[in-house]
């Protein structure tokens, strides 16, 4: 058997993995990097999938460290050789890995090309079934493209000739390519089938699949500059034909560039952004860089108060129309961060449920279902999906308000509730509020209970806990910070009240929401 020695890299530091991968012309020395992993658990999965001959692994890693990884690996795959990377302070762990079958080790501070190659060659020599022979055919094209995407430069003498031979033309583009069958289902094709299919559809174009991260194939296209316009129109035609089924291909085409060395920049700075814009234009079969519709003029802001006033006045249909108009504007603000858009629209759901509670509208079902709406907004893959969720929510809001008449509190009660909602994050008690409104505390307590189904303190806790729920869903504020942000000076008391209202501790609530 005459083949390359397959090597897997397991290290939690991305730069270390990239450095090893692009340290030398591996194939010229008889090796091939078949994959990488960021911890021992991922490493075991990759071993099962890729069947490497040699594994290079770090010692200190999250999830599963190198010592446990080596012990587990050698127990199930004793034929795989292991080389351990370590620092000076980790030698006791190295000793343990050697006892469990590691073949050799390299000190990270002394890692260089020659030592790494010598250790690999010694280790490869221990594999009986591997007839180790260096290959001098050069790296595979995919590895050169991966090297370029990672920000490395190609060697002019040993690597660029292969690129020039493979891509002889002076015009390049990147294409996110997703061929589909007649029913609109994605075709399950391997790399060779994808390239063959695209070459058949674009006979004048040189193409190769790019080893980029993500589920969709990214193709590098190379064409004579005089035929670039023809190629773009042909790709649009193919995308439209693919969209004729029940699905949508979701293709993305970059602008043209003149040098292979520009591929990494075009991929990172333009193609990835175009793929993000698909959230706003999922109904289009293809997005082409430079052919997007004009942006909406800057300065527009959604008027939350006006939207909620529509709800308060039982004008739910007007609120729905205003929201739909906003969606149209969002569709023309496609550079907006998708996470921020989802957070804003999710907060609208929260604010509407609070408003209905203030109106004394019976909305117990909506209180339960709002968490489903939150999750559906967060999981939506397009703006249209988000707006469908919000439309369903507004329909449920309308059902709650129809016939209820939105039983209104009197003006004094309205001012009192507004004050509590505005100042819930401050030390707020019955005495302080009574003093602010020039009421007797006992009278205020009776007055409040006669207008609300709960007492003053319970209602205040309800406001605070609902705000705490909103903050817990953001996942960027600690629980102790949230406690003080919603008006509780005692963290343990906050946790006790939160569990009383929700049935969960704050930490479990956050884990459940993000599960």
Automatic annotation (TrEMBL):
Lineage, top-rank taxon, reads: Bacteria
Family matches, as CDD domains: REC_YesN-like
List residues of the HTH araC/xylS-type domain: 414-512
Query: GO MF annotations for this entry?
Result: DNA-binding transcription factor activity; sequence-specific DNA binding
Query: What InterPro entries does UniProt report for this protein, alphabetically?
Result: CheY-like_superfamily, Homeodomain-like_sf, HTH_AraC, HTH_AraC-typ_CS, Sig_transdc_resp-reg_receiver, Tscrpt_reg_AraC-type_HTH
Instruction: Give the Pfam families listed for this entry.
Output: HTH_18 (PF12833), Response_reg (PF00072)
Q: What range(s) does the Response regulatory domain occupy? A: 6-123
Q: Which UniProt keywords apply?
A: DNA-binding, Phosphoprotein, Transcription, Transcription regulation
Query: What protein is this chain from?
Result: AraC family transcriptional regulator
Record-listed 4-aspartylphosphate modification sites? 58
Q: Could you mention a single GO BP entry for this protein?
A: phosphorelay signal transduction system
SMART domains in the record: HTH_ARAC, REC
SUPFAM superfamilies for the chain: CheY-like, Homeodomain-like
């Amino acid at each position: 058997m005459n083949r390359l020695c397959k090597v897997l890299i397991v290290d939690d530091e991305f730069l270390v993995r990239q450095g090893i991968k692009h340290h030398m012309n591996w194939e010229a020395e008889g090796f091939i990097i078949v994959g990488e992993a960021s911890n021992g658990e991922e490493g075991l999965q990759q071993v099962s999938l890729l069947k490497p001959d040699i594994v290079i692994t770090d010692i200190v890693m999250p999830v599963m460290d190198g010592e446990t990884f080596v012990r587990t690996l050698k127990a199930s795959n004793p034929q795989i050789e292991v080389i351990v990377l370590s620092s000076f302070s980790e030698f006791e762990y190295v000793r343990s890995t050697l006892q469990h079958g590691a073949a050799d080790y390299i000190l990270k501070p002394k890692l260089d090309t020659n030592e790494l190659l010598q250790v690999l060659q010694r280790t490869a020599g221990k594999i009986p079934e591997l007839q180790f022979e260096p290959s001098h055919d050069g790296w595979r094209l995919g590895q050169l493209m991966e090297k370029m995407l990672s920000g490395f430069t190609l060697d002019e003498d040993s690597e660029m000739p292969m690129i020039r031979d493979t891509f002889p033309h002076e015009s390049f583009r990147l294409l996110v390519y997703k061929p589909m069958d007649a029913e609109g289902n994605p075709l399950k094709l391997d790399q060779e089938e994808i390239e063959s299919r695209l070459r058949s559809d674009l006979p004048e174009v040189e193409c190769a699949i790019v080893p980029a991260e993500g589920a969709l194939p990214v193709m590098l296209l190379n064409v004579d500059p005089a035929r670039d316009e023809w190629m773009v129109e042909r790709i649009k035609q193919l995308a439209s034909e693919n969209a004729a089924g029940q699905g949508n291909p979701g293709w993305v085409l970059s602008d043209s560039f003149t040098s292979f060395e520009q591929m990494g920049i075009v991929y990172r700075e333009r193609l990835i952004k175009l793929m993000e814009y698909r959230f706003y234009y999922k109904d289009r079969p293809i997005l082409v860089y430079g052919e997007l519709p004009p942006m909406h003029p800057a300065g527009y802001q959604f008027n939350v108060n006006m939207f909620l006033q529509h709800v308060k006045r039982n004008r739910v249909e007007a609120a729905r129309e205003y929201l739909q108009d906003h969606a149209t504007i969002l569709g023309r603000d496609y550079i907006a961060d998708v996470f921020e858009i989802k957070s804003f629209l999710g907060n609208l759901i929260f604010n509407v449920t609070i408003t209905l509670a203030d109106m004394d509208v019976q909305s117990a079902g909506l209180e339960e279902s709002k968490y489903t709406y939150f999750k559906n907004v967060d999981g939506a893959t397009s703006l249209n999906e988000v707006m469908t969720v919000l439309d369903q929510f507004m329909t449920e809001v309308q059902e709650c308000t129809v016939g209820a008449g939105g039983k209104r509190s009197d003006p004094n009660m309205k001012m009192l509730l507004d004050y509590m909602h505005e100042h819930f994050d401050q030390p707020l008690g019955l005495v302080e509020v009574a003093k602010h409104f020039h009421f007797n505390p006992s009278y205020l307590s009776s007055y409040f209970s006669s207008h609300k189904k709960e007492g003053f303190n319970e209602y205040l806790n309800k406001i605070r806990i609902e705000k705490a729920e909103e903050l817990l869903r953001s996942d960027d504020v600690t629980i102790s910070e949230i406690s003080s942000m919603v008006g509780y000076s005692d963290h343990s008391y906050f946790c006790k009240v939160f569990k009383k209202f929700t049935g969960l501790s704050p930490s479990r609530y956050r884990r459940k929401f993000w599960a």
